[in-house]
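Repro:
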Amino acid sequence: MTSDSNSKINGQNADHVLIVGGGVIGAACAYYLAKEGRLVTIIDRGEFGKACSHGNCGFISPSHMLPLCRSGAISKTLKSFFDPDSPFRVKPSLNPSLLKWLWQFTRRCNHRDMMSGGKARHSLLQSSSTLYRQLIADGELKGCEWEEQGQLFVFETESEFANFKSTAELIDTEFGVKSTQYDTDQLIAMEPALKPGLAGAFYFEDDSHLRPDRLLSAWKDRLTQNGVEILEQCTLKKFICENGKARAVMTSQGEIAADAFVVATGAWSPFWNKALGCKLPIQPGKGLSITMPKPDTCPKYPMILQECQVGVTPFASGYRLGSTMEFTGYDEKINRRRLSLLSKGAKRFLIDPVAEPVEEEWYGFRPMSCDGVPIIDRSPAMKNVMIAAGHNMLGVSMSPATGKLITEIINGTKPHIDPSPYLVSRF
């Protein structure tokens, strides 16, 4: 392949780009880089698309621009220490990195930082929503079960329903993301799968959803057709550096040279802090899901059951309950008690909350940055290495814009969104 004048990172040729991480962020980066003529290789220590990108709820959510660190979040976090059934749980620990993360998170639980994080997330979410629609229209992601049904935020109690009204108004006024309020009777008429007597809901019509495992299969097919090489069971061992740049990586399958690199390793990104020359404030937030056939009375709309924070997704090919957030480090066991919170929560809201047989019980580590905003930036230690990590619970929602932005930075072209909110130097 010949180099062109745009294929540069800090003035260096970048014909071959190696991406570490075969999740949805790595896939999107590979797609847009290959589209610009780059030779792209993805390595993944497991199977492509099988980690956090696989079993989440599949929401494409412009409505989710506000980060978790907001006013009132501190008291909820403290309560979680004593409530094993809290949707958001932090296991008591003396782990220094978790304690530091909690301190950094706590410092940002105020209106100013919430709005700053919201604006950064909003840009990625809006861009990605537009890009997804283009990809779907162009037939690039066939079979991902894309649907534009919007999303319901459903409330069980009058107090929580009333409290959310100010948030909905803020989202509308500051970000232009509109919602429609439905009271009890209107809600049941709209979504008969919900039980009578609920307080109401807010409907965000611009949200969409897809099936994540089918999305990753579609990405893999498209990437392979575009000449992207995908190496599975290929573990990164170290970067091989010369003169402030990475020349190659040493992997479990040998040395691989490239001109530029992208670290898209999600919740495992902090393991590369020393090599990257920075401290990424990312903690693994374990999420769970249960996938099953559609129940007899299946919801038409994807929804979040607010008081229990359970996500409900009706796919074309099935049905999923998901969410919860648990900070327990990299514990790979599925806590049965935590998993049962999904069906218990759904039973409070839905006429037919579950169906048999259960097809999959799943967990994944969400890469939770302390401010709720991704890191999309160059490594301070290696000028031809990009970082794309810390997308929190929104990796699927933010992936196309992230992939496009990474490609623009590598190519030295004008970014389609302002990259400054995602710099690692903000920490």
